[in-house]
Amino acid sequence: EAYVEVDEGEKLPNYEQKKWEETHLHSAQYRFGAKDAKARHAKQEKQYDILLDDEIEFIQALKIPGTKADEAKEEVSEYQQKRMTIEETKKSLPVFPFRESLLEAIAAHQVLIIEGETGSGKTTQIPQYLYEAGFTKEGQKIGCTQPRRVAAMSVSARVAEEMGVKLGNEVGYSIRFEDCTSERTILKYMTDGMLLREFLSEPDLGSYSVMIIDEAHERTLHTDILFGLIKDIARFRSDLKLLISSATLDAEKFSEFFDDAPIFRIPGRRFPVDIYYTKAPEADYIDACVVTVLQIHVTQPLGDVLVFLTGQEEIETCQELLTERTRKLGTKIKELLIVPIYANLPSDMQSKVFEKTPPGARKVVLATNIAETSLTIDNIIYVIDPGFNKQNSYNARTGMESLIVVPVSKASANQRAGRAGRVAAGKCFRLYTAWAYQHELEENSVPEIQRVNLGNVVILLKSLGINDLIHFDFLDPPPHETLVLALEQLYALGALNHMGELTKLGRRMAEFPVDPMMSKMILASEKYKCSNEILTIAAMLSNNSSIFYRPKDKIIHADTARKNFFVPGGDHLTLMNIYKQWADTDFSSQWCYENYIQYRSMKRARDIRDQLEGLLEKVEIEVVSNPGDTENIRKTVTAGYFYHTARLSKGGNYKTVKHNQTVMIHPNSSMFEDLPRWVIYFELVFTTKEFMRNVIEIKNDWLLEVAPHYYKSKELEDSTNKKMPKGKGKALTELVRS
Ligand code: CDP
Ligand code: MG
Known about the structure:
25 helices; 7-stranded mixed β-sheet; hydrolase activity; hydrolase; mRNA splicing
C-alpha cells in the first residue's frame, strides 16, 4: 500500500501524510471557469470580424504573390486570439483591481514599498501602468531592476509581447555583457548590477522618471548597495519616483529604511498547499526527485510539477535520468514533458517553460532558485523541494570564496511550497523530514552582503566618490572584517593607495564589469605585451557556463576530445587554444560539434571578448599579440590572481600560500595529473573537497615580481623541493645576510 510500483522492482519512497484531502485539480482552464471562457470566446469572434477585413484588404493591397486571403485570415485570427488572451491574463492578475489606487499612491508619495505575493503581476504590470499613466512622456525611462539575469530577460520579453513591441525597442533589458535596449527604450529591465554600473556614467539617474527596485526581498549584494545609493539620490531628485517591490515579509524593514515610506499591499491569492515530508533523510536527493516525479505522474491527477535543484549540472543529470526512465516506461504512462530553466540556459530554450502544456500531458519544470520568486510559471500544482540551494560563501579570515550547496531557510522552503498553490490547491513534497524542517533550517537566509567578497563593490563605490564605507547607509552592514579585507586586497592589487583612495590603476579597473582580480589581470597585459591573449582568457573565464559538451552516452569520446586541447602550462592556455582553433575555423558551429565544444558558450565568449576589447580601447591599451610567450601570459594572470596561489604539499594536496588551507586540483583540469609545485587557480568550488577550477602552473619568484608588497620571499621558499647542494646553502645564506 505504501509503495507504488512503477517499473520492475523499483520502489518509490513513502511520504508521511500530514494531511490528506482529495483536491480537484484544474489545469489551464482554472482561472476563468467554463462560463467565462464561453463569454470570452464570443467576444473574441466579434472583434476578429471588425479587424479582419482591414487586415485582408491590407494584405491584398500589398499583392504579395502566393498569399491567399484564407491564410491571411487564419494568421490574423491567430494573432487576435493571442492578443485577447494577453488582455484577459492581464486583467486576471491580482494587481489589476488596484491599478488606480496604486497609481494614486505613487503620485502622492516619492517612495513607495510594494508588497505582493509572487505572481501578482508586480514586475510585468506596474511598469506598464506607469507608462500608460504618462511617466515616460518627458522622454524619461522607467527602470526596473532584477537580481537575476534570466528574470530580466524573460520578463522583458513577456512585457514586450504584452505591449506588442519588439524586444529591444520600447521594452528592453540590460545584463552584463548584453545590452538589448535602444534609443527608443522606455521600459528598461536590468540586473541590479547593471544599474550600479549606470551610476558611473549617470550619477543622478537623470534619464529615469521612475526606478523600481524589484525582488527586494532577495537581498542580493547589488540590491543592498542600490538601496543606500538610491535613497541618497531620491533626497535631491524630488521628481524621481522610487518603488521598492518585494514578495513578502520584509516590507516593514524596507519602509523603516526609507524614512517610513508607506507600504502598498496587494492582497494575495493563494490556495491551500498540503505539505509532505519524507520519513527518513534521503541519501541521494536527485534520485529521490526522479522517483517522486514519476510517483506523482502515475498516481496524481494532471497538473504540472516544479522541482527545485541547485544548478545546471544537477538539472541536466535529473533531466537525463527522467528521460531515460520515462522512455523505458513507454506508453504505460501519459506524456511527460521535461523542461529545464537556469541562468545559463539559452534564451530560446528558457521560453519553453512558459509554453502551455498540451492536453493530457504533464510538464515537469526542473529549475534553480530562479523559480522561487523571480519567475512565475503558471499551472504548477506540485512542488518537489529537496531543500538545497547553491550559495556563495566567504571566509573573511582566509579570504577564501567558494560556491557551496547549503540547506535553504524556512522562508525559502515556504516560498517554494507556495508555488504549488497559485492556480489551485496543490501539494509540496519536501525531500527531508519534518524534524529537519523544524530543527535544522534557519528562519531566514543571510543577506548576500554578509557572506561575499566586497572587492567589487568597494571599487565601484570608491569610483563614485564614496570614500567612507564604514558609514555608508547599509540596510544591514557587512561584517567589519570583510570590509577591511576588501580594502586590503584592493591595496595589494594597486587599486587603492595607502590612504584608501582610488589610484589611476583603480580608476581604470573600475571601467571593467568584472572582478578586481580579473580587471587587474587585463590591465597588466599592457606591461607583458599580450593583451590579445589575455582578452581571450578573460572572456573564456567570464563565460560561466560550461565550454565542454559531455553527453552521458559519449563520455569517452568527449573526454578524449577535451584532452586533445590540453597544452602545457595550464587550463588558461588550454582555453586560449580552444578559442584560437575555433576562430581559425571562422567560428564554425560544425567544428564545435565535432570537438564536443558547446557552440553557444563559445559564441557568448566571443561576445564578451568583443566588449572587453572595446573597454580596453577606452582605457587606451593597445591590443598586441604574443601567443608564443606563455611565460608572459602566465605572469599576467599571476599579476591579477596572486591571492589564489597554492603550493604542492603531501599526497597531491595543495596548501594556499597565505592561509595554509588544503585545496585540490579539479579532476577536469589539464593539470590534474601534472601536479606542478606552484599553481594559481581561477576559482574554488566545494563539492566533497575544496577544488581549484582552472589552474595554471607558475614560478614562485613571479609572485615577488608582480606583488612585492603582498608576498615576502620567506613565504615563498620552496622547502619541499630543491634541497641546496651541500656547502652551497650556507654560502648563499651568508651572501644574503651580507
Ligand atoms: O512580479 P510578480 O511575481 O508579482 O508577477 P509577474 O512576474 O509580473 O507575473 C505575472 C504573470 O505574468 C504571471 O501569471 C506569469 O505567469 C506571467 N508571466 C509570463 O507568462 N511569462 C513571463 N516571462 C513572465 C511572467
Ligand atoms: Mg516579480
